[in-house]
Amino acid sequence: SIGLLGTAAVAVFAAVRPAARTRKAVTCCAFDPASQVGATKPFGFFDPMGFSKNCTEQEWNKLHGAEIKHGRAAMMGSLGLTVQSIYKLPGYENVPPGLGAQW
């Protein structure tokens, strides 16, 4: 009687137990710099030195931020060079414009 009762209990618990969970397939989405903002249709992704070939998203974000920062500094430098050739501060009227002032 106890063996029969134990077998019945196991059968009931097995029937009540939730079905085994099936895991969904996880697709690995590798980071692709060519799909980021800035890769335009006519030119595509431009990386001639291959800096972003095997980099992670965090490394790419660091490189992207550095590129923007240095690009802005270069634009300000070219603007400063242009303004210096047009506008002369008082006392510097005889200084040659542009890079000629260095020689």
Q: Care to describe what's here?
A:
This protein is mainly α and 103 residues long. It has two helices and no strands. It starts with a helix and ends in a 17-residue tail after the last helix.
Element layout with pairings:
Elements (H helix, E strand, L loop, with lengths): L1 H15 L40 H30 L17
Radius of gyration: 34 Å
User: Got a strand count?
Assistant: 0
User: Strand content of the residues, in percent?
Assistant: under 5%
Mean pLDDT: 77
Structural class: mainly alpha
Distance between the termini: 111 Å
Shape: rod-shaped
As a percent range, the share of helical residues equals 40-55%
SSE string, helix = H, strand = E? HH
What's the main sheet like? none
Distinct helical segment count: 2
Question: Unreliable segments (pLDDT under 50, ≥5 consecutive)?
Answer: none
Give a brief outline of the structure.
44% of the residues lie in helices and 0% in strands. It has 103 residues and is mainly α.
Essential attributes:
mainly alpha; rod-shaped; 2 helices; 103 residues
